[in-house]
Amino acid sequence: MKHLLIVYHTQSGNTRRLAEAVLAGATDELVTEVEVRCLIARDAGPDDLLWAHGLLLGTPENFGYMSGGMKDFLDRTFYPVEGKILSLPYAVFISAGNDGSGALRAIRRIANGYPFKEVQEPLIAQGAITDAHIERCRELGMTLAAGLEAGIF
Ligand SMILES: Cc1cc2nc3c(=O)[nH]c(=O)nc-3n(C[C@H](O)[C@H](O)[C@H](O)COP(=O)(O)O)c2cc1C
Fold it and tell me: Could you tell me the distance, in angstroms and rounded to a whole number, from the CA of residue 153 to the centre of ligand 1?
């Protein structure tokens, strides 16, 4: 059984909608050998990262950066897992008013240190969440789960 961890932060609910779509994709009935854990960033910790074989990180862009809640998760977990994670496959989904590049850059920079290995293109949902964003998040979740199950990542 492979383990997929989804960690997200949200303030006004947009990233939660993306996370729910990612979760729906990751738990698609076609994927049978992957256990999925979906947590708000404040409830996630080092043990969750050590449990995971794959990771999906979701954040709003706030002030050109990842949200404080996501940064807090990374701040709290970095040293406790240091040296215990070899190269965790991961991907990012972001909700942004009109940009998202600053949040992505910040996450990628920190992810290099863990180290996490980016295995799928990031999903940046700009503006109001659309059906297309939801569908792409569903695909992202399913791709990570199916890739873990198949041993691709
Ligand atoms: C304090 C604050 C700062 C923000 N800064 C940015 C920003 O730098 N770039 C951007 O594209 N959107 C920015 N936004 C808009 C949010 O990224 C956007 O509303 C997003 O959908 C919020 O996601 P959430 O509902 O999951 O909290 C900001 C919003 C807030 C509240």
Answer: 31
pLDDT tens digit sequence for 96-139: 999 999 999 999 999 999 999 999 999 999 999 999 999 999 99
Q: Which pLDDT score, from 0 to 100, does residue 113 have? A: 95
Report the pocket of ligand 1 as residue ranges, CB < 6 Å.
Answer: 10-15, 60-64, 95-100
Give 78-143 as a DSSP string.
Answer: HHHHTTT-S-EEEEEEEEESS--HHHHHHHHHHHHHTTEEE-S--EEEESS--HHHHHHHHHHHHH
Number of other residues whose CB lies within 10 A of the CB of residue 115: 11
User: How far apart are the C-alpha atoms of 44 and 63, rounded to whole Å?
Assistant: 23
Peptide bond into 115 cis (omega under 30): yes
Task: Give the residue from 149, 96, 90 showing the smallest Cα distance to 122.
Answer: 90
Q: How many CB atoms lie within 10 A of CB 69?
A: 19
25-49 residue pLDDT tens: 999 999 999 999 999 999 999 999 9
d(CA 46, CA 97): 30
